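[audit] Reproducing an earlier prediction to check determinism. Same input, same settings, fresh worker. If the C-alpha cells differ from the archived copy the diff job will pick it up downstream; this log only records the rerun itself.
[audit] input (259 residues):
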Amino acid sequence: MAGMEQPPDEVLDLLIKELTEGLTPEERLVLVAGAQQANEAYRRDLEHTAAALSVAAASGDPEPLPAPLRERLEREAQAYFASLAATRSVRSVRRGPAGGWWAAAACLLLALFGWIRSPQTVLPPPEPTPALQRAALLARADTLKLPLGATKDPEATGVTGDIVWDSTAQRGYLRLVGMRRNDPTTQQYQMWIFDGDRDTRYPVDGGVFDVPADGRELVIPIHNVIPVHSLKAFAVTVEKAGGVVVSTRDHVVVLGQVT
C-alpha cells in the first residue's frame, strides 16, 4: 500500500472493524462521513486480508508451513511492522500483536498462494442469545420482572422461573429452571399472558416451546400474537403439539400474578 494517500486513522480503524467485526449504527455513520477520504485500494486490501483470515479459520488444522517459508514470513512481518512504527500510519495494530501478525501474514499468503480470487462478504456478527437479550431488557428501568411459581400439577414439581416484560416494546422473555422434558410430537408447553383489559377466559397466546432435557435452565422469547396493554398474570400450560387457541387449563405448571 506504499505510495497511496492514507485515510484518517479513525476511518481506517472503522474500515478494519467493518470487515472483521461489524459496525454499530453510530460507527457506520462516522465511516460514511469520512469515506471520501479513504482510498478504495485500502478497502480492497483489507477485504482480501479479511477473506484470507476467513479461509484460514475454516480450513481446520492446516499442514505446517515449510521452514524456509515460515522464516520468510517472519522476516517480511518484521519489516512490515518496522514500516508501521516509522510512519505511524495504521493505529489499529496496537489493539493486539496477534491481529497485526495475522494481517501481515494474510497479505503475504495472498501474494504467495493466490488464495483469494475476489473480495468476499464478511458475515455480520451473530445475534445475541435469548439470555443476553433478557439481561439487556431487564436492565431497562421500565421492565417488569414477574416471579413464577410451580403449581400442584405433577409436571410442575421443582419448577421455578420468572418473566421479564416491557410493555412499551411489547417484548419479553420467559426463564424456567427444572421443567421436565416433553415429547414435541405429542405435547408442548404453551405460554399465556393475562391482560387486564381482556376477558380472563381468553388470555393472550405467548407461543409454544419445548424442553429438550430435564431440569436445564431455559430462556425463551415470548411471542404474543396481539398487544398486551396491562399484564396481570402469566401461566405455562401443557397442551397438545402445536398448541391451542383456548386452553382448558387442565395442566397449568407455572403461574405468576402481578401484585
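[audit] rerun output stored. Observation attached for the diff report: The beta strands are 144-150, 160-166, 171-177, 187-195, 204-209, 218-221, 231-240, 252-257.
[audit] end
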